[in-house]
Amino acid sequence: MTPGSPAAAPPELCRVLEAEPALAEAVPPGLRERAIAECVAREVRLPVGRWRGGPSVPVRGGVGLLLLEGLVVRRVGIAGRFGAELLGEGDLLRPWESADEPPTLPLSTAWRVLQPARLALLDEGFAEHVADYPPLIGRLVGRAVARSRNMAVNMAIVHQARVDVRLHMLFWHLASRWGRVGSGGVTVPLRLTHAVLAELAAARRPTVTSALTSLAKRGVLRVGESGWVLTGDPPGELRELSGMAPQAAAG
After folding, report:
1. Which residues, 6 or more positions from 68, have their beta carbon under 8 angstroms from its beta carbon?
2. pTM above the 0.85 mark?
3. What phi and psi values does residue 96 have, to the nearest 5 degrees?
């Protein structure tokens, strides 16, 4: 384990389909109870802080790591410039993928747990049980596809010339997944620092701070008790990118 990495708690078993009811819904009702009992996996909990990007116990083959709770940011840098991906409940990870292959570019990759995380280790044993439930395999593949689509939207957002536009679009993009509609607007209940936002928006931190001030003055974004609060409608360009209707942030 690298210096500064949080120590993962010893693994324990969890019923993955109980922890993720949306996955259980993919199984026909007559088979669901059996699938819940059979599809168990080792579970690891991670505290806030740096993470080396892998479980403390080996995972051989299988599906990967399923994030059951928490918030994790994956940070990638080239020549001192960094981008980031925000991962949350339901995301599939394979941090060790291609770790042994020499990169063609001088990449640096780091992981940080922003909110205490709980992960299920979907190893070969889990995969063998899942093979008995083909619709469940499709649902897991769908999780991976959804992650790639989110990344594509993120890439389009960071190509916007103005940082305040990037941030406005980024927050609405996050709201499509985590947003909660209330009388005062849509709350995104994520504690994201200016440094993390800078990496998500591919901008420098001082520029992000200035852009957030500008958005607050325009009355479209503010800091609330439970997180960031958006008012008004999402930018039209974002709706075209993600297929998100103005009310889609309800959750």
Report:
1. 14, 16, 19, 20, 43, 89, 118, 119, 120
2. no
3. -85, -5
Q: Supply the pLDDT for residue 225.
A: 86
- Rounded to 10°, the helix 163-178/134-158 angle is 160
- Report mean pLDDT in 10-residue bins for the chain, 251 residues: 49 89 94 94 93 69 90 84 89 77 71 94 91 93 92 90 94 94 91 93 95 95 92 74 45 34
**What does each C-alpha distance from 215 to 136, 138, 154, 218 come to in angstroms?**
42, 40, 19, 5
| Structure tokens that stand for 21 in this block | 């009811």
DSSP annotation string for 226-244: SSEEE-S---HHHHHHH--
DSSP 3-state assignment of 213?
helix
Length of the chain: 251
φ, ψ at 240 (rounded to 5°) = -70, -35
- Supply the pLDDT for residue 102: 62
What are the E-state strand segments in the chain? 12-15, 40-46, 49-51, 64-78, 81-87, 92-93, 107-122, 180-182, 185-188, 221-223, 228-230
DSSP line for 118-143: EEEEE-HHHHHHHTT-HHHHHHHHHH
pLDDT score for 240 = 57
- Residue 70: how many CB atoms within 10 A of its CB? 19
Please tell me the predicted confidence (pLDDT) of residue 59.
65
